[in-house]
Structure formats: C-alpha cells, structure tokens
C-alpha cells in the first residue's frame, strides 16, 4: 500500500479552488490547480483524483445498492 503524499485537507482545498474559479482565465487556473495536485499525488492518489474530477468515481456500486445501504443504516433492516 502506498503512503499518501498529499493530505485530505490539501486535496479538498485545491478542488474547492477549482470549483470556485470563474471568469476570464479560470480554465487555465483550473488546469494549473489540478496539474499541481496530480503532480504531488502518488500514482494511486492521482488515479482517484482524476476519476473524481472526471465524475467517474463509481466503483461498481449501483444506485439500488446505495439506497438499500441507506435504508439499513437508518432503519436497521
């Protein structure tokens, strides 16, 4: 298992800055923020950061499974 090269707080802060970047030049700012984050990340971290940014974080769990897990979590059955 690889050790983390970036902290959760650092990742969250960078992704928040990406989300909040607007206006002229925001595309370049977003690219630079994501590139900086990926360059600091381990290969495994970079994989999941890229999947998160692309909206492809799904790991084989469908909506029905999530709904059932929520029902069990909140009702106990």
Please provide a written account of the structure.
The chain is an all-alpha fold and 77 residues long. It has helices at 8-20, 26-40, 43-54, 63-75. It has four helices and no strands. Helix 1 packs antiparallel against helix 2 (26-40) and helix 2 (26-40) packs antiparallel against helix 3. The longest helix has 15 residues, at 26-40. The chain starts with 7 loop residues before the first helix and ends with a helix.
The average pLDDT is 86
Shape: elongated
- Structural class, from helix and strand content? mainly alpha
Helical residue percent?
55-70%
Task: State the major sheet.
Answer: none
**What's the Cα radius of gyration?**
16 Å
The span between the termini is 35 Å
* Beta strand %: under 5%
- Low-pLDDT windows of residues: none
Order of helices and strands: HHHH
What would a concise description of this structure say?
This protein is mostly helical and 77 residues long.
List the helices and strands and how they pair.
Layout (H helix, E strand, L loop, with lengths): L7 H13 L5 H15 L2 H12 L8 H13 L2
Which labels suit this protein?
about 80 residues; mainly alpha; 4 helices; about 70% helix
